[in-house]
Amino acid sequence: MKKLIIGVLLCSGAGIVMAQEKKDGGFQKYEQEIPGSAVKFTMVPIPAGSFKMGSNSGDADEKPQVTVKLDAFYMGSHEVTFDEYALFQNDESLGQNVDADAVTRPTPPYIDLTLGMGKEGGFPANSMQQRAAVMYCKWLYSKTGVFYRLPTEAEWEYAARAGSATPYFFGSDAKQLDAYAWYAKNSEDKYYKVGLKKPNPWGLYDIYGNVAEWVLDQYQADYYKTLGKAASNPARLPQSRNPRIVRGGNYKDDAASLRSTNRTESDPIWNRRDPQIPKSKWWNADAPFVGFRIVRPVKQPSAEEIEKFFSTYIL
Q1: What is the pTM of this model?
Q2: Which residues sit opposite 230 in a β-bridge?
Q3: What are the CB-based long-range contacts (under 8 Å, 24+) for 276-282?
Q4: Dist CA 230 CA 312 (whole Å)
Q5: What is the pLDDT of residues 246-256, one digit of tens each?
Q6: Would the N or C end of the chain have less CB density within 10 A of its end CB?
């Protein structure tokens, strides 16, 4: 079994000049502009700390509950939108080869992956495979000089909980979900523009529902058992394209699937209608419910560490 403690690789080192950093250098919310465009996104600070990951009363793959310590990081206030993702998708300076050491853009979608639910104007990007989400982060690094990546499972759950120890950050009453999330009960079977519902206490919109969110880790049902009584910045290294993990539930899911601790493993069936042979590494023809949000470690890794990261995670 491969396992990586990411404190060294992702959260230490120096050498990258911060883009759009606040002049006072404080650990606070900031806006990042994507150079060459008018598109911006907001990153919110997630403080360092420890929490109980998993649930002793949840599904089998959420057990046992373990103590996890995390360094501080920033997280996108909302899911990556089509307005942001399209800049990468349409960047004609990029090729479309399969070289993991180069920044490459996705192949053109073979169908309307939005299914008419909405695209420009703040709708979440959807239907990409995890590889495309990680490559977007590499492209964003090339544009901004700042290392962005997907969150680990631990970081995602910690941020979603926002200091809570209950099934949802607001408590245990699923009836309150309507104020915070688009899910099966209120979505009318479609996703919505980001930020229309209330955020969690740490300023994260749509952390539950709308579209589910890719995290870095390879899925392993008994992963928590391997962490021992305590872990620091844990992540499960990739070994194969599937199964990976999405978190947060989506607009098709019931309330139980939106719990902070719920884990959903990726499934090749999400791309069963892909007409390409071999099937696309970029898109999931049957997963309009999958998207992603990004994080940025406070302590930027070195250029060498960043290249190692991308060569590890882009499969």
Answers
A1: 0.92
A2: 67
A3: 276/110, 280/107, 280/110, 280/129, 281/98, 281/129, 281/131, 281/132, 281/241, 282/106, 282/107, 282/128, 282/129, 282/131, 282/132
A4: 25
A5: 999 999 999 99
A6: N
